[in-house]
Every structure is written in C-alpha cells, then in structure tokens.
Amino acid sequence: MVSQITRGIKISVLTSFEGTYFKNYKIHFAFSYEITIENQSKDSVQLNSRHWEIYDSLNDLEIVDGEGVIGKKPVLKPGEKHTYSSGCLLSSPFGAMRGYFNMINFTSTRSFRVIIPTFRLSAPFALN
Which CATH number among 2.60.40.1470, 3.40.50.720, 3.90.330.10, 2.60.200.40 corresponds to the domain 2-126? Predict the structure, then answer.
C-alpha cells in the first residue's frame, strides 16, 4: 500500500492483479485498485474531479480526466473516509498510475489538488 497526505487529505492505494484475458485477439492484463480518501484536516471538503496518468510498459502514456469518482462527488467532514474500487487494463504485465483529485474546501471556498501517489501495477508471475 502507498499513501500520501496533501493539505490534510490522505490518499491510500492498494492494488491487485486480477488476471489476463483476450480482447480483440490481444492479451490484456487486468488490475484493480482500491483508493481510500481520508480527511485529516479541520475543514469539510468535496472531491469534484480526477486526473489520471496511466503508464503501460508497452504503450504510450494514457491520460484520463473525469468528474468525481465512480459517479460520485463525495463530501468528507473532518475525520471521515471514502473508499472506492476501480481498475484498468494494460497491454503488458507492468505499469503504474498516478494523478490527482481536484477538491474544494468548504470553509475557504478554495479549490485545491490532492496528489494521488504513484502506484505500481505488476503481475506476480512476471516478477523474478
């Protein structure tokens, strides 16, 4: 598990290899990840959008931007957590992801970025 705190918001990531399968006559490597967002600050905050950089050792960088996370824009009061799971497909058994969440602080009404730390995606059979 990797974790990072930005402005009192702790992001923790746990990853898992889910298996391989064929799609369009090509093998794909499926990975899941669980993200926990913990508000360790004294202010209520809301997650509005996300930015992902997905690195695949056999492909170019893929950028993904979108609103919320899995269709939600969670509001976190001080001490609260929000956990969600998602996943990605790679064309190789190795890769990584990193990014940030755009959030708003309800006390100051200011927007800010919370860093999602780089986390590795690797199939266990490919490690030596």
Answer: 2.60.40.1470
DSSP character string of 29-42: EEEEEEEEEEE-SS
The residue ranges of every structural domain in the chain are 2-126
Q: Which residues have C-beta within 8 Å of that of residue 125, sequence separation ≥ 6? A: 93
Note if the pTM is more than 0.85.
yes
Contact 35, 86 (CB under 8 A): yes
Residues 119/13, Cβ–Cβ less than 8 Å = yes
3-state secondary structure of 126: helix
CA distances from 106 to 9, 45, 57 (A): 14, 6, 40
Taking the CA atoms of the chain, what radius of gyration do you get in angstroms?
Answer: 16
pLDDT tens, residue by residue, 38-56: 999 999 999 999 999 999 9
DSSP 93: S
